[in-house]
Fold each of these.
Amino acid sequence: MSKSEEITQKLSLESTIREEDIPSIDLYMDQVIQLFDATYSDSLRNEDEKVLTKTMINNYSKGKLFIPVKNKKYSKDHIMLISLIYQLKGALSIKDIKSVLEPLNDKMNTKDFSLEKFYSSLVKIQQKNAQDFLGEMKNHEVEVENQETDKMERLILLIASLSNMSNAYRKAAELLVDELSERREGTK
């Protein structure tokens, strides 16, 4: 197994909460946390890391990142929005995530918007990204292996290459958040 395949397998990139995985009944916070743990715990770096905590969920709620919670229960819509937050929080600040989610939260009560349809599109894109990632990892690995350096230096080069790409993707996402914010301000 190549280093790329080994890393991709450890990342569990195809793990995601699909719409059909979300119960049709509202869940208490502990049940939400259990759902996320069951789905994403294999992708954690170490045992001390947490997928989701009560504090995180409370902070998302207080920060108005999603629609208000009713009777301390989280609906299917809440689960989908928390899942989106989970995906975004590795690359974006909470402020940027709020900017991304505000248009969705605003559209929640309109006839022409379906969060389920949006979420289904998101899951499809995530699955495609997971497949594409292995190919991209292999390309980085081949590029690094072609360098005339020792094994440790090649590993450091691979780390630097992946970090460089991660920064490029994060910065591109931040530019798009800025564009989204500008568009929203232009419509007010």
Note: The radius of gyration is 19 Å.
Amino acid sequence: MNLHLDPATPADAAFPNRIPVSRDAIAAYVADSIAVKQALLADTALLDAIGAVVRLCIEVFRRGNKVLVGGNGGSAADAQHLAAELVARFEYDRPGLPAISLSTDTSGMTAIGNDYGYEHLFARQIEALGQPGDLFIGITTSGNSKNVLKAFESAARRGITRIALCGAGGRARDIAEHALCVPSTHTPRIQECHILIIHILCALLEENLFPEHKAPKPALP
């Protein structure tokens, strides 16, 4: 079936709840995203918790340990995003930082899922790759992803610091040692703030670990 629909066409009577494609509808999405970020900005405890996680990561890297990251779906992409920024670079050239996304090895993940069950996806990798003194960041918008919760348990047994990057609810905040809980229960808004927090983390790590590599900004004319 080949449909040629005019985005400006009013919603059909059969679908009264359909959101029309309009400037106002798009602006409403932007405003909703801004509102959650404003709530994050006003949450001083969360801002302090982000700072505490940055300092923990600085200590981890300075003593020669690494960061492990895991998540499902969009959070898997965020885990890969964070690891890539640390290993490669964020804002400027500097030495690479040891970070591993546990969401990218398809052979390993399918083997673990097939042989042990999907809930063991990250825990098994932590058992194989994690060392005492490492840090694990579990990303779960619901706070209840079973494989992330099991990963926290595995990390605890191995002496690995546990960080949850989550939303306003779920069990992750109670299992992790440090929880960065976005003040929302709406998955897209939580994920948008997760990317913001990830970028803050990367920027502050570069600034504090490699200040000598930062090129001076050109003087204003």
Note: DSSP finds eight helices and five strands in the chain.
Amino acid sequence: MASSPDSQVREHPAAAYHARRRSEVDAKILKTARDVLNNEGLAALTVERVAADSGVAKTTIYRRFKHRLDLATAAVAELPEVFDDTGSGVEIHEWLRNLVQGVSWTMQTRAAEVIGAGLMYRHDEEFNELYKERVVEARAAAIRPRLQQAIDEGEIRSDVDLEFILSLLAGVVVGSHLNGTYKDEAWIDSMMTLIWGAISPA
């Protein structure tokens, strides 16, 4: 009996090893970059620093990342926990408040300076594309389904554009942190009053 083409395809053990090794090295580089960002901020993040702290050669890092801003956006591309829960079964107002609060906490880390860099270097075409893909669009894609569900079920006004809601959420949280107006839980309540007033069907 002839074997199927698929059954004849076998990955060479060496290829599997190298793929696994690359994954481990990538993880080590990105974890080290996140640690530097969280503890000391974007100014401290250099390829040389990550190489020294991780034990990974600079040449290896440069084969994966062109420069420190490439490395920085890759380091924060992994979504915080607040974006993991789709929010199914949670009333939309509560879900939105949890989202605003979670993003606000994330913005209080030094890693959030990458978002500031996204504004500072917005005229750098290469960095702007990396930033939009890894930081902005990844987060938007994670919360669009729940917002669309809320629109479909009448929890949010159907005449409000979904992209406008995303821009409103991002602008309120990120803007308030960058200009230093964020303070405490009362701030979150006031922001939710603003957001909910703009999108509530009532």
Note: Residues 13-40 form the longest helix (28 residues).
Amino acid sequence: MPTPVPARRADLSPRLAAIVDALPLRPGLRVLEIGCGPGAAAREVARRVGPRGRVLAIDRSAAAVGQERLGGALEIAAGVLVVRQAAAEDLALDAGEVPYDLAFAVRVGALDGRHPDRGRRARRRIAAALTPRGRLFVDGGDPLRELALPGRPVPARGARDG
């Protein structure tokens, strides 16, 4: 049985808190964070989905992954957080790894339009890492917007569950 995650709020900026609050989270979900940086949002999401949920936090930066592993040591020990170094466009689940229910990204160039070719590759990789009903949210809405994934219906404008 996993160790319970302490009931504490991660040290989030007001902007990150609004983004996490807007995600359609519930206990037991499997969540992928793309571009986790030092990991404050991933830790808060882990707190909200744990102890039966799971968060996979990825970042292309070795320094960011190192920061997240240090900052998220409790969540990692509890089995609700896994951290990997990977770019969104190179993402691949490990053999036998269960797909995720939703993904989110904040300030990720491959998903915010700054790098269209990388973005197309990243959306294909993210779609493959999600369940057939999995959803992808990025910043830039109010505070989030949902991106379409290859081979899936276009999300309804302003789609959000609670």
Note: The first helix runs from residue 14 to 22.
